[in-house]
Amino acid sequence: MKNHMLRAMEKKQVVEMIYLANSGKISQRRITVLKVNDHSMVAYCFLRKTQRTFSYNNILSFVSVIQKEKMVI
Prior knowledge:
By secondary structure, the protein is an alpha+beta fold.
């Protein structure tokens, strides 16, 4: 998954992910990856309109928006 995040960051792609918060709440978010670390990533979250840090262990799904649209068509 880390490789997908690095590729999205390099291409500056908007990504849609499903994320499990530590509280157990699941959310669907659109993000732009800004920095990839060993156990987490920093991204701009369009839902919260700010930079957020996301743990890899809590990411349930991660797909570029362009790829997702191609899958629908």
